[in-house]
């Protein structure tokens, strides 16, 4: 499968009064054409920082991309300067933020807000841009687009606004769409509609989606693959089936147990005890060790290597290390 | 829209009427009369004069008569400047004051906004500190002190500009500068604060994520929203500029309304006091109305009226 985006060993930190926050500490993943990759993890684990690094929208200072590479069509985005990045933002990679109530400019018509993106990147007339905007509104399921185009954000509901934000992000037909918690601010029925819309537009446009969320319910509905993040690192990545049915990292298992399940009656909600580590001075070894019921001595000292469990399924946990497995089987 | 305008008009008239009534009775409650200090007038002449200006009638009758002539846009005769009506005085003095006030307002708005935006864009940079130092000075130095400073520096020490009067554009520079610094400083600070806040908004992030240039982001997405709070203070700034003109006109010997107004208060020249107050109040009330209209135009969320919803 074609790799549209490759993130390699990304390190991002923020210099604050309290010290240096190591927000992202070596994140790597590939994004394939036409797939939806979900990045899940508790709040503060570095999901937004990762996605904003891809857009190169980390505020510098206080933030800084310490090292790593982000390849889009063979270009390393980390090496690009602002003017080149501006050509990529919105055109090749688009981003949707969490709160549709604040993501739109209150004093500009939504038509103008959709059109300005395409006018920025493509050499077309306003008439053509308007046509493209109308098509987009139609695509995201907004009726009466001609009239809606002239209206202001406050004239739309939250769900409608998120549709407009999506239309805005897609108007230049980008290769990659990053959606950072796109449904968190919406109520449940609207959430489902927006997720449905993501699936629909992906089918129609073939856009690759990075879906960031802390909600595994959202993930179950739309993700092809899932990356689980903890304390600035991806600790497990695999297909949706693999993550949901054969989770191997204790943190992934904990996350799954803390999700309400409709299919298993009377299933108990078990939140993971403890809190994530302080990212000012993250632990040397496995960051989950303090909360992990299986933690061993080695876990605190050395960060576990990545173990491949299948073609798609990778995990960073000493329990899955080949040597540990060999030890277990030789003991039997 | 029509019903909004009508409602607004009625409210404006009521406001004006309240101001007229308040000023009228307050003015007469202050001890003294137009003829007090003129020792030369004997009792009989004073009686005649009072009768002529209707000052011998009961206060309420005077009040009603004043309102009556007011609705015919007649502000009455000046007591001190006999043979001149208040309308004459206003007709002569106001155009000059208006020029002074208008240029001041324009200068304050343009320079204040520019300074504020630059400061916000270079937040915590040298320009920011410089702009805010200017702003603090501008706010804390009263305009009459500023006027004296300007005259001393730019007319006496280094004679670039004339010391006083209102004869040519060159004459206008110092009084306008003196009067504009305060409002400019207020606008600059407000613009900066508001701009800084707007720049952290999500829709600015969205605009960046679209690949828009910094210039577009600032002018198209940030500035308009940042100016909304600035527009709301324009009304009160206009008021302070208005009162400022009285002082500045006095210092620079500018033949505007200021001189007549200050004299009229000292002399208890009732019709002039009333006329100037009424006229300036009317202007302010209209200004506030225009500011509201402008706000409605700038911010689509503010509905002054129901747009023809199709
Ligand atoms: N602008 C910033 N300044 C300082 N620290 C930041 C900044 N942005 C993010 N961080 C830190 O980076 C870490 C990861 O944040 P984030 O990526 O937003 O988490 P989430 O997974 O909830 O999206 C957090 O510990 C946060 O405190
Ligand atoms: S490496 Fe050790 S502490 Fe970390 S998750 Fe695996 S078993 Fe738990
Ligand atoms: Mg986040």
Automatic annotation (TrEMBL), chain A:
Main location, first listed in the record: membrane
Pfam families, per the entry: ABC_tran, oligo_HPY
Coiled-coil region: none
GO biological processes: peptide transport
Membrane topology: Peripheral membrane protein
Cellular localization per UniProt: Cell membrane
Protein family (similarity comment): Belongs to the ABC transporter superfamily.
Protein known as: ABC transporter ATP-binding protein
TrEMBL record, chain B:
Primary localization: membrane
Domain ABC transmembrane type-1 per the UniProt entry, residue ranges: 94-295
Record keywords, A-Z: Cell membrane, Membrane, Transmembrane, Transmembrane helix, Transport
Membrane topology classification: Multi-pass membrane protein
Transmembrane segments: 9-27, 100-122, 129-152, 172-191, 226-248, 278-298
Domain of life: Bacteria
Localization, UniProt: Cell membrane
Entry's Gene Ontology BP terms: transmembrane transport
GO cellular component: plasma membrane
Pfam families documented for this protein: BPD_transp_1, BPD_transp_1_N
Family (UniProt): Belongs to the binding-protein-dependent transport system permease family.
Name used for this protein in its record: ABC transporter permease
